[in-house]
Amino acid sequence: MALLLGLALPLVLFFWAVAQAQPMQLAPRGVENAALVQEAPAASASLEAPPAVASVAPAAAPVVRRDRYNVVVLGDSLGDGTWAGLYHVLRQDKRFNVIKKSRVATGFSRQDYFDWNAEVRSIAAETRIDIAVVVMGTNDRQPIVEEGKRHALFEPGWRDIYERRVDDFTATLKATGAQIYWMELPVMKSPRFGADMAQFNAIFEARAAANNVTFVRTEGLATGADGGYTAYGPDRFGRTKLLRAEDGIHFTMPGYELLGERIANAMLADLDGGRIAAAPVLLTAPETPQEAAGKAAGYDMADRRPGRSDDWLWLGATN
User: Fold this and answer.
1) From CA 271, how far away is CA 52, in angstroms rounded?
2) What's the rounded Cα separation, in Å, for the pair 18 and 135?
3) Which end of the chain is less crowded, N or C, counting CB atoms within 10 A of the terminal residue's CB?
4) What are the two backbone dihedrals, phi and then psi, of residue 234, each rounded to the nearest 5 degrees?
């Protein structure tokens, strides 16, 4: 009897341990993916007076110094990619938690479809916004209807309403205590689309100056010798890469990293007068057009829907 008990006891203990163990995770999340979606909890703002710091926009208020900054990216589909590029650029700097709050097919023209003021208030209720990066405008080439009246793109009434909405959005962001970095829209492939984006940039730059926020220029990024559009060019490490997606509006990841680096340098100049240190240039052969095009095919296309304003391939009018 004692012998049987001696043999059974180890088996009982073994099955008890198995029952208490956690189920096996067959598909663990990737480390990079987990880091990309992690958000810091909301916390009260510091009561200490911020020290004087240098700023790329002298009129803008300095960033409050912290051990950890929540960098919240707001905008449309171009903002989606800019968030990814900024995350890659700042990945090694543990001071920054880069959070994606951009939404495809949104802007200021259709508040009935998506209200960015309400969205900012919702975000701020859950997450402290220390630094806000705004990438907006590529989805706003459409009329505005307000109080039953339709205003055509860029006509005086349209401009008045649009500028007021930009100001209201900026005021809502400022009320959260955020330091704002508004990104200039980059050069576009289509001359007609690019001319419209230049008009949006003029509005954004003027309102940034009026509202005392930093306007981050993108000139010289993914452009040719003449300053115009180019699909290929040096990435942030000096290697020749495909920088733009096939629609001529969005970017590949190397291109988004260029945008992210420009924004990061503006932020760091305000915080500590520093810049992002680029890694040494690797002497590798440039990709062939076929190789690079294959890599770029998956960018910015996952959320594209035929007939929607974010379906850039469908918008033949941009040519």
Assistant:
1) 10
2) 51
3) N
4) -70, 135
